[in-house]
Amino acid sequence: MLRYHQPLQRPQAVLWPVACRQFTFDAGEKAVQMKSHLYGPVVSRRLGLSLGVDLVPFKVCSFDCVYCQLGRTTGKSVRRESFYSADVILDQIRSALESGTSPDIISFSGSGEPTLNSDLGWLIRGVKQITHVPVAVITNSSMLWDKQVQEELLAADLILPSLDAGTEAVFQQVNRPHASLSLEKIVSGLADFRARYQGKIRLEVLLLKGINDGSEELERFREQIARIDPDGIDLNTAIRPPAESFAKPLIPRRMEEIRNLFGERATVISQPPSVRRKRCPQEVREVIIEMLGRRPCTMDEMATALGRHRHEVAKFVGVLLEERLISQKTHEGRRYFFVGEE
Ligand code: SF4
């Protein structure tokens, strides 16, 4: 039986003010959370068997990345909030562990940017009190200039921040950040955090064809990364359906060239198509194709119908797009997927 070693002071919940079909409100203005915040455990190349914890409503983020697999950002923000009851989230993690789930790691991420959840520090400490399973936080790095966020992340075992540009112009082009953010603010925050943090930092760099893969940009990238001094650099490319159709992946050979340029600490984490194909089970494949054969659907609709998290569905949809079994089209700002070609 897993128990707390000592009581945690519970954070005050501030209710997210928009209607969300994943949870409802009762008359006493208390959030009744219908949603499971957990997904997986899923096999992750970087993390092993990872139990994901989704901390933000879809899609609250400080960025609106052109490659985002979740689609365009609908709530761009740098304001930290207690979106849900932290007790409920911790209870869900506890129940999953007690029911026999044994992940290699518990990773805080989200349908947006997880450091925007102001209960993050409380939750990391809460998880550390109920299990020895290590805790990771996957972040876009945008809030690391904030000392409070740094303080909260110190309790995690592994931080996976991202950096997608070496210059301000490309940062604006790729990440389309909140107006208060700049590349310098983010890199300084990361460097400052690196100096304080004793755990491991694996920096993810997502490369896009013709956007952030030019030789000048890569040189600036190397300079910025040298300031951050991460333990590892994970090179990725847009292999899942991007928010914008112009966000194109790099071919494996170019990824290897860039890995050589970035040195020994760099690893290519995007997998070749043959490996990715094996990760879309036949039964899921059939359900998605049948569903889309009836009518076009959004990623969200598929996630609800399949009872899986958007991150998992994005992986499957990416494989089917690559095999040209389905296509995507944006209509009135929403991405729809359908069977066949455009
Ligand atoms: S990729 Fe991550 S950081 Fe970028 S918009 Fe999507 S959720 Fe936000």
Describe the structure.
With 342 residues, the protein is of the alpha/beta class. The chain has two domains: 23-270, TIM Barrel (Alpha-Beta Barrel); 275-342, Winged helix-like DNA-binding domain superfamily/Winged helix DNA-binding domain (Arc Repressor Mutant, subunit A, Orthogonal Bundle), CATH 1.10.10. The protein contains eleven helices and 14 strands. The chain has an eight-stranded mixed sheet with strand order 3-4-7-8-9-10-11-12. Strands 1-2 form a two-stranded antiparallel ribbon. Helix 2 (120-130) links the parallel strand 7 and strand 8. The chain starts with 22 loop residues before the first strand and ends with a strand. Mean pLDDT is 88; it is low at 1-6 and 12-33. Iron/sulfur cluster (SF4) binds at residues 61, 63-65, 68, 70, 73, 112-113, 140.
* Strand line-up across the major sheet: 3-4-7-8-9-10-11-12
Q: What bound compounds does this protein have? A: iron/sulfur cluster
CATH topology of the largest domain: TIM Barrel
Q: What is the name of the CATH superfamily of the largest domain?
A: Aldolase class I
Low-confidence stretches: 1-6, 12-33
Q: What is the CATH architecture descriptor of the largest domain?
A: Alpha-Beta Barrel
CATH class of the largest domain: Alpha Beta
* H/E element sequence: EEEEEEHEHEHEHHEHEHEHHHHEE
| Number of helices, counting only DSSP H or I runs of 4 residues or more | 11
Percent of residues in β-strands: 15-25%
Percent helix range? 25-40%
Q: How many DSSP-defined strands?
A: 14
Mean pLDDT, to the nearest integer, reads 88
Described by strand count, sense and barrel closure, the largest sheet is: 8 strands, mixed
| C-alpha-based Rg, rounded | 20 Å
Structural class: alpha/beta
Query: What oligomeric state best describes the polypeptide chains here?
Result: single chain
Distance between the ends: 54 Å
Coarse shape: globular
When the domains are counted, the total is: 2
